């Protein structure tokens, strides 16, 4: 296999659906026969816990500090086709440990060199534009931005795009915008439609057609360590993430195998 496409799931706003998207978009890509590695880059470790994976060391923290390679911290998840690199609370410490360290921005990128058993690597980033997110952007082919349909949804976007431009200039000249995904979308509200129109006006080339609806199944699934596909394949949340995966594969002209094999998830 060639080098995987690495997607950083980024928005410095908290609670907009980054982790829900990383987990379920990852699971949906797995359902389409893609080999996926999900790297939990957030000290909150919500993706790790939501996928029911152990946080026992060594995890991403030890790998970032050079105590072990990435291969030693990759674990299978209970999701077909999806492996994961878990996070742990200790990851908070890297902000301090990196102070005065040469080249810390490239630590994650370096760890991913030679990891070519995957089609897609998803980086679930924390809600900040700090060290861990910068490491994620430096390591990525593109940035996937979940955007919650709420008041001030676009607040912070100019800062995020400025950061992406800065990383593009100084660290990662091939970094692209993958797209913006609207989350917790409720088509019945005028606000949601206004946010969609505004995003379309500002970022005409970047908005994914698929919007993720607000759906309680998406909030429930992680407490069972399951993806929404495993928890309730017929839910609107599950169908939306399958559609998002299909749209992603179409955009990149990747043949979507396994589409008719939904029962297998
Ligand atoms: P953080 O910034 O803290 O990492 P986040 O951006 O990763 O947060 P999530 O953890 O994915 O956001 O989602 C925040 C909360 O909203 C969670 O409780 C999650 O279950 C819920 N949630 C996310 N997306 C949806 C949705 N489409 N429908 C219903 N609930 C959702
Ligand atoms: Mg999160």
Topology:
Elements: E1 5-9, H1 18-31, E2 36-40, H2 46-50, H3 60-64, E3 75-76, E4 82-85, H4 94-97, H5 107-112, E5 120-124, H6 131-138, E6 142-148, H7 157-170, E7 176-183, H8 190-202, H9 216-220, H10 228-231, H11 236-251
Parallel strand pairs: 1-5, 1-6, 2-4, 2-5, 6-7
Antiparallel strand pairs: 3-4
Which features does this protein show?
7-stranded mixed sheet; 7 strands; binds adenosine-5'-triphosphate; 11 helices; 265 residues
Structure description:
With 265 residues, the protein is an alpha/beta fold. Helices cover 35% and strands 14% of the residues. It contains 11 helices and 7 strands. It has helices at residues 18-31, 46-50, 60-64, 94-97, 107-112, 131-138, 157-170, 190-202, 216-220, 228-231, 236-251, and strands spanning 5-9, 36-40, 75-76, 82-85, 120-124, 142-148, 176-183. Strands 3-4-2-5-1-6-7 form a 7-stranded mixed beta sheet, with helices on both faces. Strand 3 (75-76) and strand 4 form a beta hairpin. Helix 1 crosses helix 11 (236-251). The longest helix has 16 residues, at 236-251. It starts with a strand and ends in a 14-residue tail after the last helix. The model is unreliable at 260-265 (pLDDT under 50). The site of adenosine-5'-triphosphate has 19 residues, from helix 1 and helix 9.
């Amino acid at each position: 296999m060639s080098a995987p496409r690495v997607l950083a799931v980024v928005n410095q706003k908290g609670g907009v659906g980054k982790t829900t998207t990383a987990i379920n978009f990852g699971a949906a890509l797995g359902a389409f026969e893609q080999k996926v590695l999900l790297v939990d880059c957030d000290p909150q470790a919500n993706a790790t816990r939501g996928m029911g994976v152990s946080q026992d060391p060594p995890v991403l923290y030890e790998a970032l500090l050079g105590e072990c390679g990435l291969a030693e911290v990759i674990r299978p998840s209970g999701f077909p086709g999806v492996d994961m690199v878990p996070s742990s609370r200790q990851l908070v410490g890297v902000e301090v440990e990196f102070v005065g360290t040469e080249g810390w921005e490239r630590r994650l990128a370096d760890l991913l060199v030679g990891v070519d058993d995957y089609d897609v690597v998803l980086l679930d980033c924390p809600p900040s534009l700090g060290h861990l997110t910068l490491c994620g952007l430096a390591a990525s082919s593109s940035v996937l931005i979940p955007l919650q349909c709420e008041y001030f949804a676009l607040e912070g976007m100019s800062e995020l795009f400025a950061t992406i431009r800065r990383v593009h200039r100084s660290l990662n000249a091939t970094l692209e915008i993958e797209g913006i995904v609207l989350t917790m979308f409720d088509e019945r509200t005028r606000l949601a439609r206004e946010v969609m129109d505004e995003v379309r006006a500002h970022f005409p080339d970047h908005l994914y057609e698929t919007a993720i609806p607000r759906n309680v199944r998406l909030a429930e699934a992680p407490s069972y360590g399951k993806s929404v596909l495993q928890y309730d394949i017929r839910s609107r949340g599950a169908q939306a993430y399958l559609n998002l995966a299909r749209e992603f594969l179409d955009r990149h002209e990747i043949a979507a195998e396994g589409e008719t094999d939904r029962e297998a998830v």
